[in-house]
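User: Here's a protein and a ligand (S-adenosylmethionine). What would the complex look like?
Assistant: Let me lay out the input and then the predicted complex.
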Amino acid sequence: MKDQIILNHYKNLAKNWGLQGQMSMQDKVIRQRESDFIIAQTQHSLRSRGISPEKARILDLGCGNGHLLSVLWESFAGSTLVGLEFVPELVELARTRNLPGVTIHHGDMREELALGEFDVIITERSVINLLEWTWQEAAFQNITRMLTVGGHYIMVESFYESWMELKAARLENKLSEVPISSHNRYLKEACVDALLKLGLCEVSAVEPQNALSSHFFLSRVFQHLFTNENTPASERVWEFFAQALPKNIGNYSPIQFRVFEKQ
Ligand SMILES: C[S@@+](CC[C@H](N)C(=O)[O-])C[C@H]1O[C@@H](n2cnc3c(N)ncnc32)[C@H](O)[C@@H]1O
Protein backbone atom coordinates (compact mmCIF):
# COMPACT_ATOMS: atom_id res chain seq x y z
CA MET A 1 0.00 0.00 0.00
CA LYS A 2 2.72 2.52 1.00
CA ASP A 3 4.90 1.37 -1.92
CA GLN A 4 1.92 1.97 -4.21
CA ILE A 5 1.79 5.63 -3.12
CA ILE A 6 5.40 6.06 -4.29
CA LEU A 7 4.97 4.03 -7.48
CA ASN A 8 1.82 5.95 -8.53
CA HIS A 9 3.20 9.36 -7.59
CA TYR A 10 6.39 9.00 -9.63
CA LYS A 11 4.71 7.18 -12.51
CA ASN A 12 2.58 10.32 -13.01
CA LEU A 13 5.57 12.64 -12.65
CA ALA A 14 7.54 10.56 -15.16
CA LYS A 15 4.65 10.89 -17.63
CA ASN A 16 4.23 14.65 -17.11
CA TRP A 17 7.84 15.79 -16.86
CA GLY A 18 9.91 13.17 -18.71
CA LEU A 19 13.62 13.96 -18.49
CA GLN A 20 13.16 17.50 -17.14
CA GLY A 21 14.94 18.56 -13.96
CA GLN A 22 11.63 19.70 -12.52
CA MET A 23 10.32 16.11 -12.44
CA SER A 24 10.86 15.83 -8.70
CA MET A 25 11.13 19.54 -7.79
CA GLN A 26 9.11 22.21 -9.55
CA ASP A 27 10.75 25.11 -7.69
CA LYS A 28 13.65 25.90 -10.05
CA VAL A 29 15.58 27.91 -7.44
CA ILE A 30 15.65 24.96 -5.04
CA ARG A 31 16.53 22.49 -7.79
CA GLN A 32 19.47 24.63 -8.96
CA ARG A 33 20.76 25.27 -5.43
CA GLU A 34 20.60 21.54 -4.60
CA SER A 35 22.61 20.68 -7.73
CA ASP A 36 25.15 23.45 -7.03
CA PHE A 37 25.60 22.22 -3.45
CA ILE A 38 25.97 18.56 -4.45
CA ILE A 39 28.56 19.36 -7.13
CA ALA A 40 30.60 21.67 -4.87
CA GLN A 41 30.41 19.24 -1.94
CA THR A 42 31.38 16.21 -4.06
CA GLN A 43 34.37 18.14 -5.43
CA HIS A 44 35.40 19.11 -1.89
CA SER A 45 34.87 15.60 -0.47
CA LEU A 46 36.99 13.98 -3.19
CA ARG A 47 39.71 16.63 -3.13
CA SER A 48 40.08 16.45 0.66
CA ARG A 49 40.89 12.73 0.30
CA GLY A 50 43.14 13.17 -2.73
CA ILE A 51 40.78 11.18 -5.01
CA SER A 52 40.98 12.27 -8.65
CA PRO A 53 37.69 12.45 -10.62
CA GLU A 54 38.76 9.48 -12.82
CA LYS A 55 39.12 7.26 -9.75
CA ALA A 56 35.98 8.50 -7.96
CA ARG A 57 32.99 6.21 -7.37
CA ILE A 58 29.75 8.13 -6.82
CA LEU A 59 26.29 6.70 -6.10
CA ASP A 60 22.92 8.51 -6.35
CA LEU A 61 20.37 6.52 -4.33
CA GLY A 62 16.90 7.23 -5.70
CA CYS A 63 18.21 8.70 -8.95
CA GLY A 64 14.79 9.45 -10.49
CA ASN A 65 14.99 10.31 -14.20
CA GLY A 66 18.77 10.70 -13.91
CA HIS A 67 18.80 14.51 -13.87
CA LEU A 68 21.32 14.79 -11.02
CA LEU A 69 23.47 12.04 -12.56
CA SER A 70 23.59 14.03 -15.80
CA VAL A 71 24.73 17.12 -13.89
CA LEU A 72 27.36 15.06 -12.03
CA TRP A 73 28.49 13.52 -15.31
CA GLU A 74 29.29 16.95 -16.72
CA SER A 75 31.42 17.87 -13.70
CA PHE A 76 33.11 14.51 -12.99
CA ALA A 77 34.23 13.23 -16.38
CA GLY A 78 35.68 9.73 -16.12
CA SER A 79 34.17 8.94 -12.70
CA THR A 80 32.20 5.80 -12.03
CA LEU A 81 28.64 7.09 -11.64
CA VAL A 82 25.90 4.75 -10.44
CA GLY A 83 22.20 5.36 -9.86
CA LEU A 84 19.62 3.19 -8.11
CA GLU A 85 15.90 3.75 -8.68
CA PHE A 86 12.75 1.98 -7.46
CA VAL A 87 10.14 3.17 -10.00
CA PRO A 88 10.36 1.28 -13.34
CA GLU A 89 9.17 4.24 -15.47
CA LEU A 90 11.96 6.41 -14.04
CA VAL A 91 14.60 3.69 -14.51
CA GLU A 92 13.61 3.53 -18.16
CA LEU A 93 13.80 7.33 -18.54
CA ALA A 94 17.18 7.57 -16.78
CA ARG A 95 18.60 4.84 -19.06
CA THR A 96 17.55 6.76 -22.20
CA ARG A 97 20.19 9.38 -21.35
CA ASN A 98 22.84 6.82 -22.40
CA LEU A 99 25.62 8.59 -20.54
CA PRO A 100 28.97 6.79 -20.98
CA GLY A 101 30.25 5.46 -17.65
CA VAL A 102 26.85 5.82 -15.94
CA THR A 103 25.04 2.68 -14.75
CA ILE A 104 21.40 2.73 -13.66
CA HIS A 105 20.13 -0.13 -11.48
CA HIS A 106 16.51 -0.94 -10.82
CA GLY A 107 16.24 -1.70 -7.08
CA ASP A 108 15.14 -0.80 -3.59
CA MET A 109 17.40 1.07 -1.17
CA ARG A 110 15.70 -0.66 1.78
CA GLU A 111 17.11 -4.02 0.69
CA GLU A 112 20.68 -5.18 1.17
CA LEU A 113 22.46 -3.89 -1.93
CA ALA A 114 25.57 -5.21 -3.66
CA LEU A 115 26.49 -2.27 -5.87
CA GLY A 116 30.12 -2.09 -4.75
CA GLU A 117 31.97 0.53 -2.68
CA PHE A 118 31.65 4.29 -3.10
CA ASP A 119 33.61 7.40 -2.11
CA VAL A 120 30.48 9.56 -2.18
CA ILE A 121 26.84 8.54 -1.76
CA ILE A 122 24.08 11.09 -2.38
CA THR A 123 20.40 11.08 -1.48
CA GLU A 124 18.35 13.98 -2.83
CA ARG A 125 14.94 13.90 -1.13
CA SER A 126 14.77 10.12 -1.59
CA VAL A 127 15.11 8.85 1.99
CA ILE A 128 11.97 10.88 2.82
CA ASN A 129 10.11 8.71 0.28
CA LEU A 130 10.60 5.76 2.64
CA LEU A 131 7.41 6.01 4.63
CA GLU A 132 8.51 4.22 7.84
CA TRP A 133 11.47 4.93 10.13
CA THR A 134 12.65 1.28 9.96
CA TRP A 135 12.86 1.64 6.15
CA GLN A 136 14.80 4.89 6.44
CA GLU A 137 17.13 3.20 8.94
CA ALA A 138 17.65 0.29 6.53
CA ALA A 139 18.65 2.79 3.81
CA PHE A 140 21.13 4.43 6.21
CA GLN A 141 22.58 0.96 6.98
CA ASN A 142 23.05 0.36 3.26
CA ILE A 143 24.72 3.75 2.84
CA THR A 144 27.12 3.02 5.70
CA ARG A 145 27.95 -0.42 4.33
CA MET A 146 28.63 0.83 0.79
CA LEU A 147 30.79 3.84 1.76
CA THR A 148 34.58 3.49 1.93
CA VAL A 149 36.15 4.47 5.28
CA GLY A 150 36.45 8.27 5.19
CA GLY A 151 33.80 8.39 2.43
CA HIS A 152 31.05 10.99 2.53
CA TYR A 153 27.27 10.66 2.59
CA ILE A 154 25.81 13.87 1.08
CA MET A 155 22.29 14.22 2.43
CA VAL A 156 19.74 16.60 0.89
CA GLU A 157 16.62 15.65 2.84
CA SER A 158 13.67 17.32 4.59
CA PHE A 159 13.44 17.61 8.36
CA TYR A 160 10.33 17.80 10.53
CA GLU A 161 11.68 20.41 12.97
CA SER A 162 12.39 23.04 10.30
CA TRP A 163 9.07 22.27 8.61
CA MET A 164 7.46 23.14 12.00
CA GLU A 165 9.26 26.52 12.00
CA LEU A 166 7.94 27.27 8.54
CA LYS A 167 4.47 26.19 9.58
CA ALA A 168 4.58 28.51 12.63
CA ALA A 169 5.63 31.46 10.46
CA ARG A 170 2.77 30.79 8.03
CA LEU A 171 0.16 30.34 10.75
CA GLU A 172 1.22 33.58 12.50
CA ASN A 173 0.56 35.32 9.19
CA LYS A 174 -2.85 33.69 8.68
CA LEU A 175 -1.57 31.42 5.92
CA SER A 176 -2.62 27.79 5.81
CA GLU A 177 -0.07 25.10 6.66
CA VAL A 178 1.88 23.57 3.72
CA PRO A 179 1.19 19.91 4.52
CA ILE A 180 3.76 17.11 4.29
CA SER A 181 2.75 15.18 1.15
CA SER A 182 1.56 11.61 1.51
CA HIS A 183 4.63 10.39 -0.41
CA ASN A 184 7.00 11.90 2.16
CA ARG A 185 8.03 11.11 5.75
CA TYR A 186 10.31 13.87 7.01
CA LEU A 187 13.35 12.96 9.10
CA LYS A 188 13.65 14.03 12.72
CA GLU A 189 16.82 15.54 14.15
CA ALA A 190 17.23 12.39 16.30
CA CYS A 191 18.20 10.47 13.15
CA VAL A 192 21.64 12.09 13.44
CA ASP A 193 22.20 9.99 16.62
CA ALA A 194 21.10 6.88 14.75
CA LEU A 195 23.57 7.70 11.96
CA LEU A 196 26.34 8.18 14.52
CA LYS A 197 25.60 4.75 16.03
CA LEU A 198 25.93 3.27 12.55
CA GLY A 199 29.37 4.91 12.21
CA LEU A 200 28.43 8.04 10.25
CA CYS A 201 29.66 11.20 11.93
CA GLU A 202 28.36 14.62 10.82
CA VAL A 203 31.05 16.90 9.37
CA SER A 204 30.92 20.49 8.18
CA ALA A 205 29.66 20.99 4.64
CA VAL A 206 30.58 23.53 1.95
CA GLU A 207 27.19 25.22 2.53
CA PRO A 208 25.30 25.83 5.79
CA GLN A 209 22.64 23.21 6.47
CA ASN A 210 19.95 25.93 6.34
CA ALA A 211 21.19 27.34 3.00
CA LEU A 212 17.63 27.31 1.59
CA SER A 213 16.07 29.01 4.62
CA SER A 214 15.82 32.58 3.26
CA HIS A 215 14.33 31.29 0.00
CA PHE A 216 11.71 29.23 1.85
CA PHE A 217 10.78 32.18 4.06
CA LEU A 218 10.49 34.58 1.11
CA SER A 219 8.66 32.20 -1.23
CA ARG A 220 6.42 30.38 1.28
CA VAL A 221 5.65 33.23 3.72
CA PHE A 222 6.70 36.73 2.70
CA GLN A 223 5.49 36.78 -0.91
CA HIS A 224 1.99 35.73 0.15
CA LEU A 225 1.69 38.85 2.29
CA PHE A 226 1.64 41.00 -0.83
CA THR A 227 0.71 38.72 -3.75
CA ASN A 228 -2.06 36.30 -4.49
CA GLU A 229 -1.18 32.66 -3.46
CA ASN A 230 -1.82 31.60 -7.05
CA THR A 231 0.39 34.21 -8.68
CA PRO A 232 3.92 33.47 -7.51
CA ALA A 233 6.65 36.05 -7.97
CA SER A 234 8.80 35.69 -11.07
CA GLU A 235 12.29 34.20 -11.10
CA ARG A 236 13.71 37.74 -11.37
CA VAL A 237 12.37 38.45 -7.86
CA TRP A 238 14.12 35.36 -6.43
CA GLU A 239 17.34 36.25 -8.22
CA PHE A 240 17.19 39.73 -6.71
CA PHE A 241 16.68 38.42 -3.17
CA ALA A 242 19.34 35.72 -3.64
CA GLN A 243 21.87 38.47 -4.32
CA ALA A 244 20.50 40.97 -1.82
CA LEU A 245 20.20 38.73 1.24
CA PRO A 246 22.25 36.05 3.01
CA LYS A 247 20.89 32.62 2.02
CA ASN A 248 20.64 31.12 5.45
CA ILE A 249 18.49 33.34 7.66
CA GLY A 250 16.48 31.33 10.21
CA ASN A 251 15.50 27.68 10.11
CA TYR A 252 12.60 27.77 7.63
CA SER A 253 13.76 25.26 5.04
CA PRO A 254 12.54 21.71 5.58
CA ILE A 255 15.20 20.68 3.01
CA GLN A 256 18.62 20.65 4.63
CA PHE A 257 22.14 20.19 3.25
CA ARG A 258 24.21 17.86 5.46
CA VAL A 259 27.32 15.69 5.19
CA PHE A 260 28.30 12.54 7.16
CA GLU A 261 31.66 10.79 7.13
CA LYS A 262 32.14 7.07 7.58
CA GLN A 263 34.41 6.40 10.57
C1 LIG B 1 13.12 13.39 -5.14
S1 LIG B 1 13.44 12.11 -6.20
C2 LIG B 1 15.16 12.16 -6.56
C3 LIG B 1 15.58 13.11 -7.58
C4 LIG B 1 16.78 12.67 -8.40
N1 LIG B 1 18.01 12.82 -7.66
C5 LIG B 1 16.79 13.49 -9.67
O1 LIG B 1 17.86 13.86 -10.13
O2 LIG B 1 15.73 13.75 -10.21
C6 LIG B 1 13.42 10.73 -5.09
C7 LIG B 1 13.57 9.42 -5.83
O3 LIG B 1 13.69 8.35 -4.89
C8 LIG B 1 13.08 7.20 -5.47
N2 LIG B 1 12.77 6.18 -4.46
C9 LIG B 1 11.73 6.14 -3.61
N3 LIG B 1 11.76 5.02 -2.87
C10 LIG B 1 12.88 4.34 -3.26
C11 LIG B 1 13.46 3.10 -2.86
N4 LIG B 1 12.90 2.34 -1.92
N5 LIG B 1 14.59 2.70 -3.46
C12 LIG B 1 15.16 3.45 -4.44
N6 LIG B 1 14.65 4.62 -4.88
C13 LIG B 1 13.53 5.07 -4.29
C14 LIG B 1 11.81 7.81 -6.08
O4 LIG B 1 11.22 6.96 -7.01
C15 LIG B 1 12.35 9.10 -6.69
O5 LIG B 1 12.75 8.93 -8.01
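Summary: The chain has a mean pLDDT of 96.
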